[in-house]
Amino acid sequence: MKGAILDGAQPVILLPNVSWRGLREPLTLAKGLQTLVEMQYRGDVFRQRRQARDWTVATFLRDPDQGLGLAVETDSRTDEAARRALPAARPPPRRMACSKSFACMAFLLEQFKDASLKDPTDRNHCLDLKAMATRFAETYKEEKSQSKELGLNGLRALPGVHHPIFKGKPINYDPRERFIAEFMEKRGDYNVFHAFYLELVQALYDAGATRYVFCVNVDAVIAALLLAVLWKDYRSGVLTEKDLETAAFNVFLYGRMIGAAAEIDDHLNRGRNMDTRTPQEQCAFVV
């Protein structure tokens, strides 16, 4: 592990399927793990201190001191439901998690690289978004024709465009994108990147590149909102593309964790397993 930990950093070592008691009996561990045993005496083992036991999902949800302190029922069905819900709450690896939002940001950066854009939230940006979208749509259609002629398996996917569920109608919408768009409209907010995406899906259809008007999916909206916040610092050189990727991951992670906590609370306190009981009018959102 030499060189893997930065100076001054606090290392955290995850040992799946290794119990606290297993660390106290090193000869029962695999040889590769035995060298880590002495670290428990130089650091700390994250276990349930009150009962000196390893954590379960349910005990972590209930524990008011070290855990979340949720009012979770103490029965075997609830414990099993919490255990089975854990994989769904765990975020995927960083590259996979942030790839969609950052891919949308990278796509927008390419489209706006030559644009004289100072403030993405200013409606008076003097950019012809329809013309920009049309140019891309025509280029994309040509790529599609060449790909077909050459017998290639597939064309590059367009980040932020289309969805496997919200499709097949003459004009398609991702309801999550519509919710955010309507919320922004009520507040009088504007985002040029979101507006470009809306022009793009129409331009792709008008150019004959798509059979119907694709939806703008929620990944595009997340990317558009985040890029607008970071645009000035990116253009000035304060932020790099790597910084944008890190930001995309963090936004994904925070949203996933908030959503997971809300789902666990809803499923366990107002329903069972995957049954959601909270009325829609009582649900809230985080902006």
Description:
There is one protein chain. By secondary structure, the protein is an all-alpha fold. The chain has three domains: 13-45, no CATH class; 53-88, no CATH class; 94-256, no CATH class. The chain is 52% helix and 0% strand. It has eleven helices and no strands. The protein has helices spanning 20-23, 31-34, 39-42, 57-62, 76-89, 94-111, 129-149, 175-187, 192-206, 218-236, 241-270. Mean pLDDT is 81; it is low at 92-98.
Tally of individual domains = 3
| Structural class category | mainly alpha
Helices and strands, in order, run as HHHHHHHHHHH
Gap from first CA to last CA: 40 Å
Mean pLDDT: 81
Range of strand content: under 5%
Integer-rounded radius of gyration = 24 Å
- Main beta-sheet strand count, sense and barrel state: none
The percentage helix is 40-55%
Could you give the count of β-strands? 0
Model regions low in confidence, pLDDT < 50 over at least 5 residues: 92-98
Q: What form results from the Cα inertia axes?
A: elongated
Q: What is the count of DSSP helices, taking H or I runs of 4+ residues?
A: 11
